[in-house]
Structures are given as C-alpha cells and as structure tokens.
Write a structure and sequence with these properties.
The structure holds two protein chains of two kinds.
Chain A lengths: L1 H5 L9 E5 L3 H13 L3 E5 L2 H7 L7 E5 L7 H9 L6 E5 L4 H9 L4 E4 L4 H17 L11 E4 L2 E4 L4 E3 L5 E2 L3 H12 L4 E2 L1 H7 L9 H14 L10 E4 L3 E4 L3 E3 L1
Parallel strand pairs in A: 1-2, 1-3, 3-4, 4-5
Antiparallel strand pairs in A: 6-7, 6-13, 7-8, 8-9, 10-12, 11-12
Chain B lengths: L3 H6 L1 H52 L3 H11 L4 E6 L6 H4 L5 H10 L8 E4 L11 E6 L5 E6 L10 H37 L14 H45 L6 H26 L8 E4 H14 L3 E5 L5 E4 L1 H18 L2 E8 L3 E8 L33 H11 L3 E6 L5 E8 L4
Parallel strand pairs in B: 6-8
Antiparallel strand pairs in B: 1-4, 2-3, 3-4, 5-7, 8-9, 9-11, 10-11
Classes of the chains: A alpha/beta, B alpha+beta.
Chain lengths: ~250, ~450
C-alpha cells in the first residue's frame, strides 16, 4: 500500500482539500496523511471557519465531519449544495445506514465511516477527485439518481440494487463499484485490466484473478428471475460486457 | 378440587365467598327470627281464641239446668273446638301441671282473669295418635262441675308462609347480582395484572387508569414508575451510545498513527486489535439501538445476503461457503437482517474452523441453516446462548473475543422480522443454528 502513496500527483497541480474536523488530533493526522500523499490541505474546526475559508477558492474537495460543534456537517452540506457543486466526502462516527443515505441524498459524493484507515481514506479521496476531474458536474444538470438496465434498478443514492420484480439484492462495496463500471460502459467489452483501470481507487488492491472472482460473484447476484438472458456476458478471450441498455432517471 | 385451588387464592373468589356467606347468615337469621315472632303471635291468637270461647260457653252452659248442660256444650262445639260438661274433674292432677303449657295458661288468665285459677290444660289427652297434638282442658264452674274442651289446633306451630320462599328467592337474586358486580369491580384489577405482565419488554405499556380509586391509583403509580424507569434506562443508553460513538474518533486516530509503527508484524497485530475494538463498539451500538430501527421493510433476496456474507468471510480468510438457491424472497429490513446473519456466521467461525450456510425454501418460510464444526454447547446452555453478555465459556473456552451480544442482536432482529432462531448440537459434532423467516407475499 505504501508504494501507491509515492505515485501521488506532484505538488504543482496538487488538489486542494478542505478538511472540516473538530477533533484536533484527527485533523492533524488526516492533514499529515493527505499532505504526504501530495495534496494541499487546509484544516478547519467548525462551520464558521469553513465559510471563511471556502471563498478563498481553489477547493477541489471537502472532507466534512458530520458531528461538528454548532451547525452539524449535514447542515453545512445542505447550505453548501445550495451554492456550489464542489465534491464532498462525509466523515462520520455514526455508521448508520440512515445517516449514510441522508448524506448521499443531500448531495455528498461519498461517505467514510469512522474509524477509517489510511488506505480507505486515500482510495475514496482519489476516486472522488478522479470522477470530478473526468465529469465535472455542472449545476444545471442534476446527477443521475437511478440507473435501470434490463428491468434491474441501481439506486446511486442509497447504493441499493433491485431486481426486475422489485426485490432488494445485497451488494458488497466492490460489487457495487464493479457494477457501476459496467453501467458506465454498456455494450462495451471490458478486459480485466480495463476494469481495474476504470475502477481505480475503488476496487482497491484488485488483481486480474480477483476481477474474475468479483465478476462471477456479481453475476450470481444478477441472476435473472426466470428464463431471462444474463445481464453480464463473457466474451471469450476478451473480457466481459454488459448486454443491456442503461437508462438514467 | 384441583381446579378450585386457584379460585380459592383469587381475591375475587374470596370476596364473593365472604359476601355469599354474609347473605346466607342474614337470610337464615331472618327466617329464624320471623319464625319465632310468628310462633309468638300464633300463641297469642290461640290463647285469646280459646279464652273467648270458654267464657262464652261457660255463660251459655250455666244458663241451662244440669241435665241439659252436656247437650248444650256439645251444641256449641265446632269441628275444631269440642266442648263438654262434666260434673267431676276429668283431669288428673299431674296432667294439669304440664309445664310446657304454663305460658299458655298464664296468657289465657291474663286475657280473661275470670277463667279463674282452676283452669287446667293438658296436651294429647286420649289414646289415639291423631289427638296427641291436641290441647285439652277444663275450667271449674261455680257449682263445682267442670266445662271441658278439646282444641284440634295445638299452639306453637307456625307454618312458613309463601313470603319465606319469596325472601329466599330474593336472597339468591341478591347473591347472584353481588357475584356479577364483584366480577365487574375486579375487572380493572384483572386488566391491571394483564397490563403489568407486558411491562418491561423495552416499550412503555400504558396501563389503563380505570376502575375503583384503589386500582386507578395503582395504575397511575405503575405508569409513573414506568416512565421514570424508561427515562433512566434511556438516559443510560444514550450515555453509553454517546461514549461508543465518541470512541470511534480516537480509534480513527490510532488507525492513522499505525502507519508510524515500523515493525510490520506489530502493525498488523495492533490493526487487528483496533478491528476488535471497532466490532465491539458496533455490536454494542446495535444492541443499544433496540427496537426502534427506522429502516423500512422491503422484499429482499435473502440468498444474496447469504452470498455476500460467505464471500466476505472467504475474503477474510475464513472457511465459509453458501449452498442454496440464488433467489429466495422475504420481506425484511435488509441491513438489520444482514447484521443478524453476519453475527450468526461470525459466531460459527469464531468457535469452529468452518461454517456451512444453506437455505431451503419451504411452503411458508425460508429456512436458513448455519452449521459449524466447533465443540457445540451443552444442551442446558442452549437457552442461555441468546441472553445478552453471555459467554458459554465452559464448553467453548477459547480466547475468542466478541462482546457476547452477537446472538442476542441476531435473535432480536430475526424476531422483529417475524421469524424464529434456534440452535442445537449436531449429532456429528458442532453447532447448528436455524433461522426461519416468513416468505414474502405469504
């Protein structure tokens, strides 16, 4: 894991991360960790400081703690989303499903539960920065909330998958990320390296073999109810393909 | 008799018994008193009647010459009151002294003093059995002869009139009404008992404040007590939850500081200690959350949850596999059920070396089975295994960690979803946990 950190972007065009965290020790540690990985980091303790620092501009990502003294992180997020689309990762000690969904519904790009480790935090930060670099989401076009394919429905806010008959299907984090890669490239044959590349930062330390395992696990979860064709096809010698149309709603 | 025993212990039955006994005594006493006073009144009337007739007969007889006196007396007789005349006393001295008749004689003399002290009375003169109850007597006349009489009616016999039956019927009716009313009065007490039985399972049970003042007071006191206890428990729970939440920040700090530890083995060991701490906090919070889980229920493919659990366990290097259909639906809280099944599988691999998860779709239910190859547990400890903070160290004595809350949480979640969870030792060794969930749409 340590070698990955060495490959961090150089300081010149380093992304600027605004960290809102009231715990001094944690703020210091996260700041150090992100700086070591080559990011520019500004730390602040609460909402008031946050609003003072934000207009200074050049913020590429906000790491926002949910439990803050005074206005909570969710309040800050709501206020922030009213004026800006800057990517936000919520950090919370409350690892509750409802909190996670609420954070994502309010427009957070990702959610990290305490206690987190260095690799997890860095992977999330990289993934969110990368996504915003590829497709900077303008204010006018709201992000898709749901992806539908062959009757299946993936809710991007709650990260939940429902089969064509409406039954909820349990997905692991890696399976979700993999499915998202397929859904972002429907009808394209994706090789293992391609999948790893496209999901970089999200599938973590995946290898070729683990991609195969992951795809087979995902397919088992995507087993069509009765007599319907499989959603993810194997293209011999080339990789995998999502064989259905994807609709954004 | 065996069925009467609990009745004898019941407050209501005892009160009713006392009430009925009181009615019975009062009614019996009333009948007895009436009988006494009726007898006295009858005695009085009889004495008056006999005295009157004797006075009238004496005057009529004395007006006749002695030869016609007997005939005259006979003519004055009625079927119930025979009169006669005798020149000599028809009664022996000992007969006239019948002590049972003294009060009658005194009464007659006090009513008609002119009958004179020579009045003699006797019971049952004559040999015939029919006349044993008759009253016979004689009074001396002025010329030394005697006027005799015999009354068919003996005094002192008062019959129970129809009103006595009426009063008995009334007593019975009052008794029945009392029993019914007592049952009604005891009703709030019974409701109170029933409501009290529901107290203490986590939620505040409103006890109905109804009925007589005493039960109303008890209900009010119970409700107040419940709110106090609930407040106390909530306060403690919130404090514990707050501490648990707050612990996550220092654990985060430790996790980040871990990178500064040079020795990789040491780093890994510390990392796994932090994992344990995190798992304990998570399960404590899940336990404290109790029954108010806001997650909505939805139709869920339970098989997909079991697959995820088996996959995640395999990735963590544990021997867990799932065998069963790819699709089995139940209406549940998905995240909660995942936690419950996670705990069951975790318990299996914690004590055994491997876990086998299987799923069978039955007519009404999904039957999930998790089997391990661990030491199992003593059959008398099976019931205790689901209690909070229980560690069955006797048979599963190993440094296994955990909070002792996993199975408690699992049972609460499964039962909240309308299912059941049970465990049993497998004949071939190891433990089997069976979870049954109602199928969706049934």
């Amino acid at each position: 894991m340590l070698p990955q950190i060495e490959t961090a972007p150089p300081a010149g065009d380093a992304a600027h991360i605004l960290l809102v965290e009231d715990d001094d020790g944690l703020r210091m540690l996260v700041t150090r960790l992100l700086r070591e990985s080559g990011y520019r980091v500004t730390g602040c303790r609460n909402g008031a400081e946050f609003w003072r620092l934000l207009p200074a501009g050049g913020v590429d990502l906000v790491l926002l703690d949910v439990m803050l003294p005074g206005a909570s992180g969710l309040d800050l997020l709501r206020a922030l989303r009213a004026r800006s689309t800057v990517p936000v990762i919520m950090v919370s000690a409350r690892n509750e499903e409802a909190d996670r969904v609420l954070g994502l519904e309010l427009g957070a790009d990702d959610y990290v539960a305490k206690p987190f480790g260095r690799p997890e935090l860095l992977a999330r930060v990289r993934a969110v920065l990368r996504r915003s670099a590829i497709a900077p989401s303008p204010l006018a076009a709201p992000k898709a909330e749901c992806l539908s394919f062959s009757g299946w429905r993936l809710d991007l806010r709650s990260r939940s998958l429902h089969d064509p008959e409406g039954a909820g299907v349990d997905l692991s984090g890696a399976e979700y990320d993999l499915l998202l890669v397929f859904l972002e490239h429907p009808g394209r044959v994706l090789g293992r390296e391609m999948i790893l590349e496209l999901s970089r930062g999200r599938l973590g330390s995946a290898t070729d073999r683990s991609v195969d395992t992951l795809v087979s696990r995902l397919r088992r979860k995507l087993e069509p109810p009765e007599g319907l064709p499989p959603v993810v096809k194997t293209v011999r010698g080339a990789g995998y393909m999502l064989a259905s149309k994807v609709e954004r709603t | 008799m065996r069925r009467l025993a609990p009745l004898a212990r019941s407050l209501e039955a005892r009160t009713v018994a006392v009430l009925l006994l009181a009615i019975l005594v009062v009614h019996g006493g009333a009948l007895l008193l009436y009988r006494q006073s009726a007898a006295a009144a009858a005695d009085d009337a009889f004495a008056r009647q006999v005295a009157n007739q004797l006075i009238l007969a004496r005057e009529a007889v004395l007006r006749r010459p002695p030869s016609e006196r007997d005939t005259e007396a006979k003519a004055l007789s009625s079927p119930h009151f025979e009169l006669g005349w005798s020149p000599t006393s028809p009664m022996h001295q000992d007969e006239a002294a019948d002590p049972g008749l003294w009060s009658l004689r005194t009464r007659m003399l006090s009513l008609e003093p002119s009958l004179g002290p020579g009045l003699a009375l006797a019971m049952g003169i004559g040999d015939e059995a029919v006349h044993q109850e008759d009253l016979a007597g004689a009074i001396p006349l002025a010329d030394g002869s005697f006027l005799t009489f015999r009354s068919a009616h003996a005094p002192g016999i008062a019959r129970l009139g129809p009103w006595a039956y009426l009063s008995t019927a009334m007593a019975i009716l009052v008794g029945v009404a009392a029993v019914v009313l007592m049952h009604g009065i005891a009703g709030p007490l019974r409701n109170l008992t029933r409501a009290t039985g529901r107290i203490g399972h986590g939620v505040v049970v409103p006890v109905p404040e109804a009925g007589p003042d005493e039960t109303r007071e008890i209900a009010r006191a119970l409700n107040a007590m419940q709110h106090r206890i609930h407040g106390l428990v909530t306060e403690r729970t919130q404090a514990l939850a707050a501490v648990s939440h707050d612990l996550r920040t220092p654990i985060s700090r430790l996790r980040l500081r871990l990178d500064g530890v040079a020795d990789p083995a040491e780093r890994q060991a510390m990392g796994s200690d932090l994992d344990d701490m995190q798992a304990m906090i998570d399960s404590t919070l899940a336990y404290l959350r109790g029954d108010d889980d806001p997650e909505p229920r939805q139709v869920v493919n339970v098989a997909s949850i079991l697959m995820s659990i088996a996959d995640a366990s395999s990735d963590a290097g544990r021997d867990v596999d799932y065998a069963g259909p790819g699709r089995a639906l139940a209406t549940v809280r998905q995240v909660a059920l995942r936690r419950a099944l996670d705990n069951v599988v975790d318990n299996a691999v914690r004590y055994g070396t491997r876990a086998r998860i299987s799923l069978a779709v039955e007519a009404e239910a999904l039957l999930l089975t998790v089997e391990d190859d661990g030491p199992g547990i003593a059959s008398e400890e099976v019931a205790r295994a689901f209690e909070p903070f229980t560690r069955l160290e006797a048979s599963r004595n190993r440094n296994t960690g955990g909070t002792g809350l996993g199975l408690t949480i699992a049972r609460r979640i499964v039962e909240a979803e309308g299912g059941t969870i049970a465990m049993a030792n497998r004949p071939e060794g190891g433990l089997q946990v069976r979870v049954s969930l109602p199928r969706a749409g049934r």
